[in-house]
Amino acid sequence: MKPHFSIVVPARNEESTIAYVLREVCKLTDDLLVVDGHSTDRTAMVALNFGARVVKDNKRGKGDAVRVGLAEARHPIVVFIDADGSHDPNDIPRLVEPIANDEADLVMGSRMRGGSDELFATLPEAVRLAGSAVITLAINYRFGVRLTDYQNGFRAIRTEVGRVIGLKSNISTIEQEMAMRCLRLGYRVTEIAAHEYRRRDGVSKISPLTMGHKYVWNLLTGICVPRRAQPAFPISAETSVEIKRAAP
C-alpha cells in the first residue's frame, strides 16, 4: 500500500527535465499532481503520459501554483518537488516521516546541510547564496529557531496547514513565506539534509538582480508581525488519525 501523501510538481516549460522527475516520483504516491503554468512546450503531455493529474495555475507564478497544488491535493500530506531534476526523490520518505510521526507540520529540505551543486559555481549563484544567508539569519533571529534553508522548494507540509495559513505570494517567495507563516502561527517547522543537484537542463528562472527586492519585501512583511504561542488553527482529530495511518 502506497503512503498517503500527494506529490505536487509545479512546472512551466520543463519538457526536457520533467520526465526524469516523474519517472521516479510516480512510484511513491497514488496522487501525483503537476500544476502546469500554461506551458508552451510538451510539459503537460509528458506529465499525462506518466499518469499525473494535470491542472493549470492562474498564470501568476510559482506561488500561485503551490496554492493550486494544496487545494487539489487528495492526501493529508503534500510533498513539493521542482520539475528541473535538482532534487533527489529518494529523500521524499525522510521529508514525510516527521509529519507522519506527528513531530512537525512543515519539513524543508536543506541544501546547507545536504550540499548543493548550484549555489557556489557562478557569480549570480554566489549572490543568491549571500541573499539566502541574510534571509535565514533574519528569520531565525525573529522566530528564535536555528534552521538553515528557507528558499528550497523541496519540502513537505500538512495539507490542512498549507491551506489555512493564508499564503499570498505569487512567485518563488512562496517558500520563505510558507515557513514564516508556519512559525508565526505556532506550527512546528524542521528540516532534513537534502542535496541539490545542478538542474538537468536549461537555466534557473530566478534572477537575483530582478527578484532580490521582492524577497526583501516578503521578508520584512513576514517578520514584522507578532508570533503566536499555539497554532492559530488546531489540526483536526480526523486529519491526525489519517496522517498516522500514512506513517512510512
Describe this structure as you would to a colleague:
The chain has 248 residues and is of the alpha/beta class. It has one domain (6-245): Alpha-Beta Complex (Spore Coat Polysaccharide Biosynthesis Protein SpsA, Chain A). 41% of the residues lie in helices and 13% in strands. The chain is built from 10 helices and 7 strands. The chain has a 7-stranded mixed β-sheet, with helices on both faces. Helix 6 (123-143) runs parallel beside helix 9 and helix 8 packs parallel to helix 9. The mean pLDDT is 88.
Write the layout of secondary structure elements.
Blueprint: E1 6-11, H1 18-25, E2 32-36, H2 43-49, E3 53-56, H3 62-72, E4 77-80, H4 92-100, E5 106-110, H5 111-114, H6 123-143, E6 155-158, H7 159-164, H8 174-184, E7 189-193, H9 208-223, H10 237-245
Parallel strand pairs: 1-2, 1-4, 2-3, 5-7
Antiparallel strand pairs: 4-6, 5-6
Number of domains: 1
- The total of beta strands comes to 7
Name of the top-level CATH class: Alpha Beta
Strand order of the largest sheet: 3-2-1-4-6-5-7
Report, as a whole number of angstroms, the end-to-end distance.
Answer: 10 Å
Key words describing this protein structure:
seven-stranded mixed sheet, 248 residues, Spore Coat Polysaccharide Biosynthesis Protein SpsA, Chain A, single chain, alpha/beta
